[in-house]
Amino acid sequence: MDIRNRLTTLHTLGRERFALLLLFLLLYLGLAPFLKGWITARLLMSILLSAVLLSTIYAVSQTRRQAVLTSILAVPMLATTWLTYVMKWRELTLASNLFSILFMLITMVMILHYVIGAKRVTRDVIFAAIVVYLMIGVMGSLIYALLQNVSPGSFSIAETTVREGAYVFIYYSFVTLTTLGYGDVSPLTDQARALALLEAVVGQIYLAVLIARLVGTHISQAIAPDGRRNHN
What we know:
Layout: H1 2-15, H2 17-30, H3 32-35, H4 41-60, H5 64-83, H6 90-117, H7 123-150, E1 155-157, H8 167-177, E2 185-187, H9 190-222
Antiparallel strand pairs: 1-2
């Protein structure tokens, strides 16, 4: 019975490809500040980002073509991320941000295509929809970090705010995405304000439109063609 349960668990994980990606994304977003006393936050963020990258490749690679494309995109992102530890070049950091943004953007499109094209609302579809929302926040943090590197002084950061690594922009991105607006990190330039405004709007539209679609799909799949509810 124990072996059967384990096989069932492995089979479920195989079908729910986005569960592992969601787990690594949540760890990437929430774990780093609590472990920075044991290892540097920057190193931890790089490790978790690499885990997110690899699990993203696994999640979106339904065909060989998708696997090849995401792997090609992942190589420069992974390489530049880790090369920044041995080469303290500003250009390398900028390249790392650019490759990361490109990878996130293309994989988000793939995942959205999967979610929108789903005929049934399964747990995997729900996980995928949550992943896209979190990836919007992560990509936003990368864009803010890129803007700050290109144009220093684009943001005002309070002295009490955590400043280590890119986590300050992850924090700011999700505060903006959820329209909380605590005010301890603020955009100072028109470019920064435009990006913040765009992220806030995209976040609200995404929630409204996608949740409505998932609810509609769920209702339609629960009703049989003859108009009676399907209890299967």
